[in-house]
Every structure is written in C-alpha cells, then in structure tokens.
Amino acid sequence: MASSSSSTAPTQSPPNPEGPFFSDFGITDSGEFYAKNNPFQRSGPVGATERIAMAKNDKVIYVRVDMPGVPKECLYLTTFPDNVVFCGGLAPIVCEGDRGRLYGASYGLRSYKLRKPQVNISNGVATVKMKVSKKSKTGTRCSNSPSWDEELKKDELSFYLVTHPSETEGPKETYGAKKVKEGFYVWVDMPGATNEKVSVGVEDGFVVFCGEAVNESNHEESGRTYKGRFGPFDVTKIGEIKTDVRNGILRMLIPEKADE
Q1: Residue 220: what pLDDT?
Q2: Residue 77 burial by CB count (10 A; 0-12/13-18/19+): exposed, middle or buried?
Q3: Fewer CB within 10 Å, N or C, the chain?
Q4: Closest CA to 162 of 69, 44, 34, 52
Q5: Residue 247: which of 69, 26, 60 has the closest Cα?
Q6: Highest mean pLDDT among 50-59, 111-120, 248-257
C-alpha cells in the first residue's frame, strides 16, 4: 500500500478566478492519488467497494460498500435464486445544495450456496454478510457483481479518478461546493467518519477539514483518514462555519458577511 506524502506534484483543483477551490489532495510519492475514488483520503483501505475473503473455518463472506448519505432506514437487501443478493440504498436530500444519490449492486457466489444474507450500515459504510453452506451441486456460476474494473474518469489535473461502481444515480464526485444565498455550501464524503472524529478550522485563509474513520467491522484491514482544504477566503468576510457530519458525509456552510 502506497504512503501519502507532500509530493511536489499539483495538489489542487484548477483555481476558479471567481471563487475558492479545493486543494491539498492526498498524493503519493509517485504523484498519484492515494485513493482514486476519494482524493482526500490519506490512509487505510482504498476503493469504494471491498470484498473480504472468507476465512477457512468462518463460512462467511463479507463485502464492504461505501454508501455515503444512506441512513439505516433507506438501506435494503433482496435475495434472488441462483445465489444472488442485491443490496441497495438511497441517500436523500438533506439540505439546500444536496443532490440525492442511489446505490445498487448484486453479488453472487460461483460455487457455494447462500443462506441468511444480512446487511448493516453505519456512518455511510454498508457491510453485506453472506453465510455459505457446502458447494452447489450445479457447479460454478458467474458472479453478477459490480464491475471491479471501475470506469476511469479523466480529471483536469491529469490524474485519474474512478467513479463509484455501485452508484446508479446522483453526483459521481466525492466532494463539491455550491454558491448559496448565505455563502458556500461544501460537502465531502468521509465514509466511516463520525462527528467526534471530524474537525474543521481556518488556516491561512483556507477552511481545513480532517476526519478519521474507525473500522466498521473486525474484518476490515484498518480505518481511514481524510484531509483537505477549501479556499482561499478573506477571513474578515466569513462568519462562523456550520458543520454537519451524518451518514459518512461532512457538510459545511461557510457564511459570507454582508458588506458594510
């Protein structure tokens, strides 16, 4: 696993002459994003989806799926014949500037029989738990899983970002900003992070945000960390930043003071 560093490669989105921009992305020594699905991630397992191998005597397969914005009441699981499980979720619009998202993917086993599949979600991270029994008599089946060779999306910085393989509707980016009446509405995906593990402050005219996500289950390799910034601002012209961390998304309202 590559380590993040303060590389001399470009670390900011193209400056907007009309306003602030995102910067301080997590860049590795090779000049690439540490996590190609989230440019602000600095450590931990990468990828929006992770299949966790079955332990020899466990007879359970786990799949981690990041679903930022999805609350427990909007998560669902459906089983089909032929060892196929469909897991989906809806991320509702919470406030002005939001865009809802829809997730959905099916997971199949090639040669084991499924029994009692379960799903749980916490802080925007869903865990699909699939108990298996002895091998199927019908032989190997193809798995109807999301494309693990995620479609690449060319970023304007000549880096490569990948879209979420299980997201079927809504914004593909993991961060964004919008000018609203009060100032700037900013959101950043931080799957696994809680309000207690997220900090927001102002340094040198930039709004700096950091977050830490602990392991959502004992089967994950480790937690994850996030860090980035948005600006610059004239700090004399912005008010107290309002933050909300819910279901794996950091939302910020950066108010602008009226000209006197």
Answers
A1: 61
A2: middle
A3: C
A4: 34
A5: 69
A6: 248-257
